[in-house]
Amino acid sequence: MPAELTINEAAHLAGVSTKLIEKSVESGILHAERVTDVLTRRLTRRLPLAAVPFLSAINDEWLRDLPVKRKRRIWTIVSRNRLAAEARLAEVRLNETITLDLEGMAGTRTRLAYAYRAARDAYLVAEDDILGGTPVIRGTRLTVYSVLGRLEGGDTVADLVEDYPGIPEAAFLAAATYAKTHPLRGRPSGRPWVPDAAVRH
Q: Can you give the pTM of this predicted structure?
């Protein structure tokens, strides 16, 4: 199963804390694979996209205290299911009396995770000769941090689409999520969170 989401991305998309993920990794339920991030070029730990429905489910109030053995069983079932971008999630039968409505618990978040992963890979790039390698929307000098800055400053995605009609909405949503889950380290050079002209290069 490919490792597709960083710990922070998985936590954000599943609506859980990174602490829950770390606990799942430490107990041997999830395996975080060490890979080099395409954009940051740093070694990072990644999880399969199937971690999103699993984490969303076990974050439910009455499942948080399940024994590790039961959580492993849920992960085994979820990870073996063929997840598709638009498909409804299957029910997980724990025993004769307990069945988890995985679609109700995690369907929306899982589809958002698919959409994010696809848009991140399609629209976000980082190249040394463009703003020193700060991640930008492909074909522009618009950084992911400037997109997030505008949204946090009160603009909407519709405002961004109006200002940059050549960029699809999915690219802005992916940029904002990436910026939230990959905060700037140390003291940034320049001000990459301030909107820069989306100049084609």
A: 0.87
20-62 pLDDT per residue, tens: 999 999 999 999 999 998 888 889 999 999 999 999 999 988 8
Spatial distance between the Cα atoms of 55 and 32, rounded to a whole number of angstroms: 14
Q: Answer for the pair 160, 172: CB distance below 8 angstroms, yes or no.
A: yes
Tokens of 62: 């009455």
Split at pLDDT 50, 70, 90, the class of 103 is confident
CA 109, CA 114: separation in Å to the nearest integer?
9
Fold designation for 126-181: Arc Repressor Mutant, subunit A (1.10.10)
Task: Give strand ranges (E) for the chain.
Answer: 5-6, 33-36, 43-47, 92-93, 99-100, 124-125, 136-137
Phi and psi at residue 188, in whole multiples of 5°? Answer: -70, 145
